[in-house]
Amino acid sequence: MSALADRRRALGFCVYCWGTIGCLIAVVWASFAYLSLDLSRLFTLESGRTMLEFIGRFFPPDLSADFLRRIARGTFETLAISALGTLIAALAGVFLALPASGRLGPAFKLATRFLLNFLRSVPELVWAALMVMAAGLGPFAGTLALALHTSGVLGRLFAESLENAPPEPAAALLESGAAPSLVFAYATLPLIAPQLVAYSLYRWEMNIRMAAVLGFVGAGGLGQMLYYELSLLREPQACTVIIAMLALVAAVDAVSAWVRRGQMRVGG
């Protein structure tokens, strides 16, 4: 009897899997048909020659001393935009996570979650365009754009961490007569602090990449330099900016991974 039930479950699973695969294939085919995409044109000799000529115009990169100084200023500006935007977002996320986790009542929870959903549902580029209109061109607009979007993301992640924190240490301190603020500081916060740091570092890595893109709408940094060079069809200078972007992202990823490994060793 159990073998028959196992075969029925396996058959139902196979039908579900094949049905899902069939739906995905149908959606992909319908998308290609609706958009009239002809990928075969990418593999013709003419397309290959055109792509090689396009790539060749970017080399050799511009390594002149004056341009490298501009690259260094843009790199530090991008790094500052991402770091400051992430820091502001982390602080705002902690502040918003408390009501979003239900610690101040259901009404505050509903209102705060709606705010967090709104902040993170608006893409960074849209926030950057709005902030450029409100605050003008430059890194200030980029910092505000990253802070607004990342506050919504980190606030939701921090709230879920608070909701999933083990309640026993906090309950023990409350029963002993400790104040709620002390309970949060000494029982709940130490348990979720590694998660808060990991989430913040992960978002910083993402914000480095996004800060390099926000310059396309005038938010400063390497992105604004890249947009300027490409608009003037100065491919060697644009290649140098792209290399600087890749180096910055790789360096930040390495630093973030090193910090997380150190945190895991301390926690272990």
Short descriptors:
MetI-like fold; single chain; 2 domains; globular; mainly alpha
Task: Walk me through what this model shows.
The chain is 83% helix and 0% strand. Helix 3 crosses helix 9, helix 6 runs antiparallel to helix 8 and helix 9 packs antiparallel against helix 10. With 268 residues, the chain is mainly α. The mean pLDDT is 81. It is built from ten helices and no strands. It has two domains: 55 residues, no CATH class; 203 residues, MetI-like (MetI-like fold, Orthogonal Bundle), CATH 1.10.3720. It is globular, with a radius of gyration of 25 Å.
State mean pLDDT (0 to 100 scale).
81
CATH superfamily caption of the largest domain: MetI-like
> Which fold name fills CATH's third level, the topology of the largest domain?
MetI-like fold
SS elements, strand count: 0
Q: Choose one word for the global shape.
A: globular
Instruction: Work out the count of structural domains.
Output: 2
Oligomer: single chain
Query: Could you give the distance between the termini?
Result: 47 Å
Which structural class should the secondary elements be placed in? mainly alpha
The percent range for helix content is over 70%
The stretches of 5 or more residues where confidence is low (pLDDT under 50) are none
**Architecture of the largest domain in CATH?**
Orthogonal Bundle
The helix count comes to 10
Order of helices and strands: HHHHHHHHHH
Q: How much is the radius of gyration in Å?
A: 25 Å
Largest sheet: none
CATH class group of the largest domain: Mainly Alpha
Tell me the strand percentage band: under 5%
